[in-house]
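Feature request, filed as a ticket because there's no other form

It would be nice if the structure record came with a short human-readable summary line next to the tokens. Right now we just get the raw output. Example of a typical job, pasted below so the devs can see what we mean:
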Amino acid sequence: MLMAAVSRSDDRRWPFWLIALLALVANGILLFGAPPLLGAGAALLLAGFLPGWLLVQLLVVRSSSPPTAGEALLYSIGVGYGVIVVLMLLLSYLPGGIEQWMTLALFDALLVGLLLLYGWRNGPSRASGETATQQPD
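Raw output as currently delivered:
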């Protein structure tokens, strides 16, 4: 019974406010200084895991055969790593050096966009378990 609940991807959706809160806490840790280990964890959460998890939720989880919890976690880590590499490469093409505010602004803009898509796709009717019915043609 526990395995059936864990294997369904729709049961693992995080609330919109929790994702936003994690992003805000990570931004606060990075902006106001923290021990290096805590700052590295916040940077990985903000730049890698949260965007990767949101992309996996938006693109893969609603497929006909959704991934298990472990697969979704691994996909999230891999996609997050790819997001970090690609966005930092694009940021490096700007003239001048890369500064902290530029990196935070880029990843925050990405997170805001992904959060808006996630909130739109998992709106109140979908979060309560209702499904849209199709009208016959």
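Something like this underneath would help us a lot:
Residues 45 and 108 are 12 Å apart (CA to CA).
The chain has six helices and no strands.
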